[in-house]
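@channel sequence for tomorrow's demo:
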Amino acid sequence: MALDALILDFGEVLVFPQDPAGIERMAGLAHLPIAEFSRRYWAHRDAYDAGLPVDEYWRRVIDGADLVPDDELRLISELTRADCDSWTLYREEVWDVAAAFKAAGGRTAILSNGPPEVIGHVRTEREVSRYFDVVIVSCEVGCAKPNPAIYRICLDRLGVAPESALFVDDRVVNLDAAGRLGLQTLHFAGDASVPTLQARLRPLAPNR
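structure tokens (generated this afternoon):
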């Protein structure tokens, strides 16, 4: 079936997995053991992705740290910068796939759960419109994968039917939700999935 749209997750698809050195850096800034920092970091991440303000997110992560207000603000700024850096090791081959599909006449989108600081960092570093027609991020639309609403928002903004779109994500729960709406799906499992994606698209010129 010809495709009208390619929809790509951001984390671990358009970028490599979160840099372990970044986690170590943030844990060091927070003066927490790595395991404890990671537990706190992920415990509040869904709320952050859904719109929890950045200052409140980091206050929850560093709760109990003995800091004066000025130190807290400085630490939150440093943690935010380190967090953004840890999520922006770009997987250039996948960006090139999106650019080629768009240049051939297809519609392209990022569909991601994420906070405004990370996507804002990406927008300052990349000419996103060169690759993507639409960017849908949970913090900006008020819902997150696997909620069906976020897929419908993406399809509406792309102006395509579900069955003519291929959605690529590293999480099976997100793919299952997309599949139930009729989207074609591809499970992205690291570097080995890049040629799989390229092969999936190669014979399928956009239906234009």
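heads up for whoever presents: DSSP finds twelve helices and five strands in the chain.
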